[in-house]
């Protein structure tokens, strides 16, 4: 694909004098070895949380949505907040795998596998919320326009909620195909190394008979590019349509035209934060510091800074135009956000999303691993608050002051949210033990241009 | 080094002179009194059906906006009178609006190039350093073009025209909505903001150009690093000022209307036009025998950006249009009603030229490497985005009295000539290759 020449000023993306064989060994190690104690501890905690969440879901479905904290005025709260939050997190994976591929960013090779895994697992969490909110999830297929004899039942094509169904299912499908395509050569590598027949069987099944012939690679490159081209508009369209859920309404604070691109920027922002959270831990635990280098973390921090600034610019634009519009409802919606009873949520959002990423302008901070980790958590919290602020503060004081009220989550609301976090980590931890977490085949393609030993060799020989 | 040929000089001068005649004709034929305006309307052969079409937007406007209704009943003898006055203002605005649309369009190309250049620098892009000097040449127009736009704004503030109705104290006095905005929409603050934006952008342009040239003969990469940092800082400044500039210079022409997306929408239009101009310039310079290291790999990347940003523009256009159309809130939807009623050809024509055609022409990967395809698509994109600016400014400035005739064509020719002259002139001032840039070799060896 891209040129093999690389300017000497570029930092190496693979460190530790790696050879092709060494890369295979390093990537296969967590899969071939046994899980350590810490893994089991974290996995057990996640599983307990997940089970608690499952209990809350069963309780909700068997009793009714009434067990949530919703009321007549605030008819949408944690469910949709969590939904948007999880969907948003998923965006970084697609951006890294598709957009950065089109932009020929070699640093994506070290992180794309896990980012895409994160995408798929977080979209799964997101999908749970509308499903539970239906009350009768066994009728979920009614959201599809299937010719039927249920009576006059037909989907509402005018509703952005239906567009969401199409957007998200397309997104999940394309992401899954993209992820798995990339996995084929890596699964084949694990298969070829496997000693036990059972493992060999499993990995040869999931690698779809990858043979490593030139033709396989040629098709691999071609399909990657096509899928990247298809997935790039999806990065934009999914969160755009999620934003339409709000922006097509006439509710002050929801109806604003900047929502589509601003939601997308916010999604990438939160997604990169989550990638940083996961990978900073994973590179340590799985000894992958040579592949997920400080340079990778710094670049992700820069993406967080840029998208955070875009989001900040959108916040200020919204605030200013609310005043400029001269519409008193619009003005009140924003005044209420910043100074009303939910002021703490608004300022938590502002601090986490606008101020904290600006610290990344300092090289010292953005190259500090512990600081990056803290900021990644802060941003995740901030982005959850952003959705909460948009959704609840716009609803809780509507056009009719007599119905103004507050929202407080019930233990079920909290339980389901925590349960999805548990579920997410259960999936991710299982993934980290069974999947090649670095796209080793792709990393090998950049070894000679971006490996530190080759860079040094070139420097010595005068480029 | 690039040498300004006689042909380019004559061509651009001819455009400037012809354009000046067109502009002069526009001002000459604009009415200077209400009586003249009435005469023009009466004389135009489709005058009758114009008058009947005409009532709708004016009435819609006044019924929607209470304050202006009050204005009508208090201050004029009746609807008929204010209607004539309205038409007079629109006709008188036309030559000004024609100049303003063209001035802004060419200025925006230069500003978009500056932003694209800063993105290349801040992202440490490896494919584009060979194109830096061409981009720097295009941004040479930033300061002169910006000053012209500011002068037009100053003339508006001095009441030479009625482009910005909020600058008229009479109007503000009787319009509650505009009055509420006067903390932001007032002449001194407005002009000061304009000077501030232009100063910020020009300073970046000045220093990045300086570092870029200094890097050519330097043994270390300190100038490159300085440019990297400066570009990142500029982009932070730009993201805020670009939105504000769009609100000030375009959105406030229709001071009742507002859209939070507007600034980014203008940016999309700006950047796609800029990339198109970069691509066309490169093809032209190569045809003269310059830039021999630039090859179709670089053009392919530029064409990908032309394609990508055309889709991005369409995305933002759709987001803004669909949300306003769907919610159908009176104070917002008037904007599109005016355009759908009175500007059907430029409105839908622009969609075809800015989205459908570039999408279909440039989606094929081999096509993106063919010069004639890039130029064809480029011309369509540039005309389309001129129409976009036209659609953003004209409906509020001249209402349904718009037309595309000598004043508009003259303005385009004048600014095109000026743009070509200044841009090619600034190309002569430095070598066409930024040889000292540490990423330049990557750009040379770049193969897609």
Task: Give me some keywords for this one.
heterodimer; A: mainly alpha; Formate dehydrogenase/DMSO reductase fold; 16 helices; 72% helix; B: 448 residues; mainly alpha; 77% helix; 0% strand; globular
Polypeptide structure, described:
The complex is a heterodimer of chains A (463) and B (448). Chain A has 463 residues and is an all-alpha fold. Chain A has a single domain (20-145, 154-399, 410-447), classed as Up-down Bundle (Formate dehydrogenase/DMSO reductase fold). In chain A, 72% of the residues lie in helices and 0% in strands. Chain A is built from 16 helices and no strands. Chain A has helices spanning 20-32, 37-63, 78-102, 108-133, 160-193, 197-206, 214-247, 259-285, 294-325, 328-339, 343-358, 363-366, 369-396, 411-434, 440-450, 452-460. In chain A, helix 2 crosses helix 14 (411-434) and helix 5 packs antiparallel against helix 7. The longest helix of chain A has 34 residues, at 160-193. Chain B is globular. Chain B has one domain (6-445). Chain B is mostly helical and 448 residues long. Classes of the chains: A mainly alpha (463), B mainly alpha (448). The interface between A and B is large, with 38 and 43 residues.
Tell me briefly what this model is.
The complex is a heterodimer of chains A (463) and B (448). With 463 residues, chain A is mostly helical. Chain A contains 16 helices and no strands.
């Amino acid at each position: 694909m891209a040129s093999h020449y690389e300017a000497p000023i570029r930092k190496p993306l693979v460190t530790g004098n790696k050879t092709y064989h060494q890369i295979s060994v390093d990537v296969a190690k967590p899969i071939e070895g046994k899980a350590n104690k810490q893994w089991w501890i974290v996995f057990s905690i996640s599983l307990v949380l997940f089970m608690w969440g499952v209990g809350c879901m069963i309780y909700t479905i068997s009793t009714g949505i009434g067990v949530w904290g919703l009321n007549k005025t605030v008819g949408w709260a944690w469910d949709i907040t969590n939904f948007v939050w999880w969907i948003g997190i998923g965006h970084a994976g697609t951006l890294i795998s598709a957009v950065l591929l089109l932009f020929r960013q070699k640093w994506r090779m070290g992180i794309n596998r896990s980012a895409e895994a994160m995408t798929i697992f977080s979209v799964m969490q997101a999908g749970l919320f509308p499903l539970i909110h239906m009350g009768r999830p066994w009728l979920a297929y009614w959201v599809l326009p299937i010719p039927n004899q249920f009576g006059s039942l037909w989907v509402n094509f005018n509703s952005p909620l239906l567009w969401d169904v199409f957007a998200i299912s397309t997104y999940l499908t394309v992401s899954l195909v993209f992820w798995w395509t990339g996995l084929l050569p890596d699964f084949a590598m694990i298969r070829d190394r496997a000693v036990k027949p059972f493992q060999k069987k499993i990995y040869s099944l999931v690698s779809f008979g990858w043979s490593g012939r030139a033709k396989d690679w040629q098709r691999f490159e071609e399909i990657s590019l096509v899928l990247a081209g298809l997935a790039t508009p999806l990065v934009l369209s999914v969160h755009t349509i999620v934003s339409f859920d709000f922006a097509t309404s006439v509710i002050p604070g929801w109806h604003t035209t900047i929502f589509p691109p601003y939601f997308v920027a916010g999604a990438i922002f939160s997604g990169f934060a989550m990638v940083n959270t996961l990978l900073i831990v994973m590179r340590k635990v799985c000894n992958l510091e040579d592949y997920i280098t400080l340079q990778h973390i710094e670049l992700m921090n820069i993406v967080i800074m840029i998208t955070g600034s875009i989001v900040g610019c959108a916040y200020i634009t919204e605030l200013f135009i609310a005043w400029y519009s001269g519409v008193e409802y619009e003005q009140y919606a924003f005044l209420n956000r910043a100074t009303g009873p939910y002021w703490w949520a608004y300022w938590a959002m502002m601090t986490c999303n606008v101020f904290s990423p600006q610290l990344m302008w300092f090289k010292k901070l953005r190259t500090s691993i512990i600081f990056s980790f803290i900021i990644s958590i802060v941003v995740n919290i901030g982005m959850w608050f952003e959705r909460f602020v948009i959704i609840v503060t716009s609803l809780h004081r509507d056009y009719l002051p007599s119905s103004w009220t507050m929202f407080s989550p019930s233990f079920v609301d909290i339980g389901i949210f925590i349960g999805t976090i548990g579920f997410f980590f259960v999936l991710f931890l299982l993934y980290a033990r069974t999947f090649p977490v670095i796209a080793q085949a792709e990393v090998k393609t950049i070894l000679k241009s971006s490996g530190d030993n080759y860079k040094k060799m070139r420097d010595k020989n005068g480029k | 080094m690039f040498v300004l040929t006689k042909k380019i000089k004559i061509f651009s001068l001819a455009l400037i002179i012809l354009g000046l005649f067109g502009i002069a004709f526009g001002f000459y034929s604009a009415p200077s009194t209400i009586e003249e305006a009435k005469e023009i309307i009466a004389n135009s052969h489709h005058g009758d059906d114009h008058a009947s079409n005409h009532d709708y937007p004016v009435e819609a406007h006044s019924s929607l906006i209470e304050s202006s209704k009050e204005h009508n009943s208090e201050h004029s003898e009746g609807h008929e009178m204010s209607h004539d006055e309205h038409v007079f203002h629109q006709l008188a605005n036309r030559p000004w609006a024609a100049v303003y649309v063209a001035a802004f369009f060419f200025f925006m190309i230069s500003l978009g190039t500056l932003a694209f250049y800063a993105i290349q620098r801040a992202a440490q892009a490896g494919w584009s350093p060979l194109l830096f000097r061409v981009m720097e040449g295009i941004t040479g127009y930033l300061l002169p073009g910006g000053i012209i736009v500011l002068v037009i704004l100053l003339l508006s503030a001095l009441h030479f025209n009625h482009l910005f109705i909020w600058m008229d104290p009479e109007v503000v006095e009787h319009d509650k909505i505009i009055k509420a905005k006067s903390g932001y929409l007032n002449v001194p603050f407005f002009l000061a903001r304009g000077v501030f934006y232009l100063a910020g952008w020009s300073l970046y342009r000045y220093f990045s150009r300086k570092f870029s040239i200094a890097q050519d003969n330097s043994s270390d990469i300190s100038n490159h690093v300085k440019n990297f940092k400066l570009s990142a800082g500029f982009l932070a400044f730009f993201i805020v000022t670009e939105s504000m500039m769009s609100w000030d210079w375009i959105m406030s022409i229709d001071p009742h209307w507002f859209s939070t997306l507007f600034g980014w929408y203008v940016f999309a239009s700006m950047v796609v036009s800029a990339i198109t101009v970069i691509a066309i310039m490169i093809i032209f310079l190569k045809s003269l025998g310059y830039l021999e290291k630039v090859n179709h790999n670089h053009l392919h990347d530029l064409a990908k950006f032309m394609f990508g940003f055309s889709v991005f523009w369409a995305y933002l256009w759709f987001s803004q249009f669909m949300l306003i159309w769907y919610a159908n809130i009176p104070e917002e939807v008037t904007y599109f009603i005016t355009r759908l009623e009175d500007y059907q050809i430029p409105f839908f024509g622009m969609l075809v030229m800015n989205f459908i055609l570039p999408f279909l022409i440039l989606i094929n990967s081999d096509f993106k490497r063919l010069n004639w395809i890039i130029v064809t698509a480029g011309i369509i994109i540039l005309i389309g985005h001129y129409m976009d600016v036209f659609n953003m400014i004209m409906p509020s400035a001249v209402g349904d009295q718009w037309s595309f005739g000598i004043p508009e064509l003259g303005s385009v020719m004048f600014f095109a000539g000026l743009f070509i002259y200044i841009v090619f002139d600034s190309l002569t001032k430095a070598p066409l290759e930024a040889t000292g840039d540490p990423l330049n070799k990557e750009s040379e060896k770049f193969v897609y």
